[in-house]
Amino acid sequence: MIGIGDEAIPASRDDSGAPGLEGLPRVDIGALETSVPSVVEAAATGPIILTRNGSDAFVLLPLDAYSRLWSQAPRPPVIDMAGPTDT
Q1: Alpha carbon distance 49, 60 (integer Å)
Q2: How far is 57 from 64, CA to CA, in rounded Å?
Q3: Per-residue pLDDT tens for 44-66?
Q4: Stated pTM of the model
Q5: Which of 30, 46, 67, 74 has the most CB atoms around its CB within 10 Å?
Q6: 85 to each of 45, 57, 78, 80, 81, how far by Cα in Å?
C-alpha cells in the first residue's frame, strides 16, 4: 500500500513507555529532527520550554528526567474499599 501522508500514527506497545505514559500516542521524532535538529539536540540534554504567542505552552522533557519527576510525584493513598475483614 502506498502511503499518502495522512495515515494513522501507529501506537507503540504499552510496556515500552515510562509509567504514566501508557496509552499515549507515539510519534517518530525523525521529521522534527530533520527540520530543527538544534531543538532535538537541546531536548536530549535537558528540558526545553516551548512558547506560543509569547506564553509558555509546552515542555519537551527527556524521558529520564520525566521518569525522575514521575517517581517523586505524590500519589493518592490506597483505600481498601472492602473494609475490615473478620479473621
Answers
A1: 6
A2: 21
A3: 888 999 999 999 999 888 888 88
A4: 0.53
A5: 67
A6: 51, 49, 17, 11, 11
